[in-house]
């Protein structure tokens, strides 16, 4: 299963149970990286991804994690520490991929405080505090990848809060890179374009999908695998001097 010599490394991928996170988890495992993946509401899907990796000669564990509940993060970090010890006989891990996220299509005029808070909690506040609390468990020289969105850069009606939070996450990437540089932890952003997953209710009817494809230089929607392959390739010393950067994986959307 291993395609590179990453055998002793471990990655934690949030939202690794389906969509883009699943592809990141599977492709990291193919490179010999041990995977700790999380699901939120669907344990079966989380465990299925871990089983697939374990069956194919890799090593993975699935844990429940809800990015909107900061009060549970200390317990989660404790669980991560226990799993690292039990399964890998390590106290640290190497790569954190902050992938879990949600969207809700709502025009600004219809955006309630509840919707706003939910989007902030999962997509920004949760990422901030999870990273803050997990960094003590990360090995020096490790790497963090924050999954943003093309919508951080270009505006469409209905995603004002979501897109703005992804822009904020890109800013946060640079701040984490600055404050943890002394530990040689690199922090980068990967920004998917329009990717064909169930995210935010999916990509809609055929006409809408064709419209997105026509705005994309490569002429199609992205697949989870497009992002998974790129992110997994970054989890390596091959990108050892890439820091505080944003890489868009969108096939040339809106150029
Ligand atoms: N798809 C796109 O077009 C696109 C484009 C740009 C950026 N992105 C970004 O890419 C990332 C992954 O998107 P995706 O398309 O793979 O989404 P997805 O198919 O909807 O999968 C979302 C994943 O996140 C988990 N999750 C949902 N709510 C959570 C919460 N409150 N706490 C922790 N985990 C939670 C889900 O777990 P459960 O199923 O167990 O709840 C699932 O594993 C997101 O950050 C998204 O913003 C996506």
TrEMBL record:
User: What Gene3D superfamilies does the record point to?
Assistant: NAD(P)-binding Rossmann-like Domain
Q: Provide the species name.
A: Puia dinghuensis
Please give one Gene Ontology molecular function term for this protein.
oxidoreductase activity
UniProt cross-references to InterPro entries, sorted A to Z:
NAD(P)-bd_dom_sf, SDR_fam
User: Could you identify this protein by its name?
Assistant: Oxidoreductase
What highest taxon heads this organism's lineage? Bacteria
Presence of the UniProt keyword Ubl conjugation in the record? no
Family that this chain belongs to: Belongs to the short-chain dehydrogenases/reductases (SDR) family.
Q: Keywords assigned by UniProt?
A: NADP, Oxidoreductase
């Amino acid at each position: 299963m291993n395609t590179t010599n990453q055998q002793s490394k471990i990655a934690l991928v949030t939202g690794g149970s389906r969509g883009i996170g699943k592809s990141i988890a599977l492709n990291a495992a193919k490179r010999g990286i041990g995977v700790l993946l999380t699901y939120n509401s669907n344990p079966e899907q989380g465990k299925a991804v871990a089983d697939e990796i374990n069956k194919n000669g890799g090593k993975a564990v699935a844990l429940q994690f809800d990015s909107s509940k900061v009060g549970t993060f200390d317990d989660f970090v404790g669980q991560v520490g226990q799993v690292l010890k039990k399964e890998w006989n390590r106290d640290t891990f190497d790569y954190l991929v902050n992938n879990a996220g949600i969207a809700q299509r709502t025009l600004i005029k219809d955006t309630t405080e509840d919707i706003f808070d939910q989007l902030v909690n999962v997509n920004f506040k949760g990422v901030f505090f999870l990273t803050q609390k997990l960094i003590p468990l990360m090995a020096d020289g490790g790497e963090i990848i924050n999954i943003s969105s093309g919508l951080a850069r270009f505006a469409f009606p209905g995603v004002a809060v979501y897109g703005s939070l992804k822009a904020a996450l890109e800013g946060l990437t640079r701040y984490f890179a600055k404050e943890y540089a002394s530990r040689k932890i690199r922090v980068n952003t990967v920004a998917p374009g329009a990717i064909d997953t169930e995210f935010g209710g999916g990509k809609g009817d055929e006409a809408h999908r064709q419209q997105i494809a026509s705005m994309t230089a490569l002429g199609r929607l992205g697949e989870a695998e497009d992002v998974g392959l790129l992110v997994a390739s970054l989890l390596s010393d091959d990108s050892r001097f890439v820091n505080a950067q944003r890489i868009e994986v969108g096939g040339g959307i809106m150029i």
